[in-house]
Amino acid sequence: MPRNRKAGPGANKPKPGRRRWLWLGASLAIAAFAGYLGYLNYLVNARFDDGAWALPSRVYARALELYPDLAVDRDDLRYELDLSSYLVVETSPSPGQYRVLGESIELHSRAFGFADGAQPARRVQVFFDGARIAALVDSDTGSKLALFRLPPLILGSYYPDTDEDRLLLAGDEVPSRLIETLIAVEDRRFYEHWGLSPRAIGRALLANLKAGAAVQGGSTLTQQLAKNLFLTPERSLVRKFNEACMALLLELRLSKREIVTAYVNEVFLLQQNRIAIHGFARASRMLFRRSVEHLETEHIALLVGMVKGPGRYNPFTRPEATRERRNLVLDIMLAEGVIDADEHARARAAPLGIVARLPGVNPFPAYLDLVKRQLQTSYPATELARRGLEIYTAFDPLVQRKLEQGLERGMARFAEPELQAAVVIADYLSGDVRALVSDRVTDYPGFNRALMAQRPIGSLVKPLLLYGLLEAGHTLASPVDDEPIRIRQSNGQVWEPRNFDREVHGRMTLYQAFVHSYNLPFVHLGVDGGLERLAHNLDRLQLLKHDVIYPSMLLGTTAMSPFEVAQLYQVIANNGYFTPLTTIRQVSDQAGRVLDRVPLDSLKLFDQALMIQVQRAMIGVAEHGTARYLADRFAGLTLAGKTGTTDDARDSWFAGFGQRMLAVVWLGRDDNLPIRLSGSSGALRVWADIMQRQGIEAFNISRDPALAWRHVHPLDGGIARRDCANSVLLPFPRERLPRSKSACP
After folding, report:
1. Which one of the listed residues 186, 243, 266, 564 is annotated catalytic?
2. From 84, 157, 438, 459, active-site residue
């Protein structure tokens, strides 16, 4: 038998070929890991390049200019200050605060960089005389002011790349106490580690092993940020590995201050319907109606406590659990020296202090949606991609508030829970869209009916139809026949239009037919050339929606959105001059340099003299026609408007205007079922409720040398005596004055 030999020193060494494979495998693993880290690093850099979290593009409302005799009362000013998260106090206010002193308000405005120069923080006392401002006084010098601009409300923070609406904070805007509390509760060694805390990981691992389940986490703030930004909430080793790697990369990429600022802006805190609320700034305004600068200790503790479990510590659904969690955070704040014993005792005894009802994520979602749409269509993508843009709009919070109040009262008239509404208010001279709602629940961020709902407009088309008839040589005194008519269409079907009241009224003037919105006279005139002119004029406004022109267009089968109707009536109210309706006044960069200013640009599309005649007919609608309700509601005030009702009363419309202010109201159901409301019984009443609160001023009809004004009888069109009870004063082209005289019964 062979002898057993002892193994020599190199007997167990891998062969040269095997060593090469081991080195190759290790090299490939290292290369793959390095490549994967490079990919993760790319994700981190892409998210934080160009100061993405520190420089949001902010959308502002108009700046409120205060001056003596301005029609603003004390309640209006308080509303605007509260909306801008000014805090009401009892003592002399600091920046971002105000106090009520009898019939006056003393406010301390925040500093703001207007396009024409920076305005420092300033204390101003505003004195009121009823519904108007009586005087403005500089609180520090005692001198009277002729004008003071209140910095504008921030409507939202907009990211064009992601179409997000977030209220974000820059690093210097995050309160130090909030940072101290976050670190004390979530990551006490935040300033000592490089994204990972071995001690916390070991402690969590031991606790989980003892419990036999995942009961404790060992994540640092940086790891939580990595998870919130890039990863899913699943519990797996792969996710934890990615989280750890990205935490290290974040620490290499960002400073500690940048990490905590990003965390404050990104952390999930609350659910509002189907919308996740991220960031302390937005959650603070929604829960407490306060900006973070005005948070009390108990508010900070509640918000930081919610980080651990937004569902478990929801103050609306689980108030007692939320209170216990808040108080535990207060205990930690005391133990870590963030607050003293007196402040701890006071905060622990304080109520939760939340709002009664959680508001919408943005209180004005329909208007902000329009801003975003117009930004994307009017400005190059390269400009919108820049961070830190300042977008100044025409939004007027006081006009919006009165719109919402009027709409609420108006909708309460109708026992129809499925009835929906959309309203647009604009300045028809400048084209500024000042307020807008797209739902009877005005802060609901759903389908934007004001922009997207395409509904037949009914008799709202008649002012443009009337313009075409006047253009063809008719006058307001021209005789027309209100008689039945049958029209055979190209498809062989016979169309038999009817008046809304199902009656026929015989012979009358064009003015009378328009004022009472009779259909049959306009169909008679329409088939005799009026239809082609109507289509041509709609096309000039880019509102022609049909490739084939049907006679039914004469009665408003053309579908439009309320916003498109507002654009149509802007031209009518503005003497035929087209001014694009816009939300945007100016766009500036972060340094205050104006990148673009929207000019006051009007294009003459229609003849002024003819349009003045249309306006006079619309005044007649409000005086003694289908909108004569306005004559009683606004006695002595000249207003112009037109009602609109569609087949089977599925849509109720009213468009009307006074001096500069135009408003369009639509009522209907999303399922297009009948609502049993005409334009007169529905939208007109809501319009009146809204505009009465706005303090609408009388419409001043223009004078044109091409027109002569005469008193005529509305039925026979003959010249009538001024003292004739039934006569109306109407404008006529000088070459087409009425020749007959009326007996004026």
Report:
1. 186
2. 459
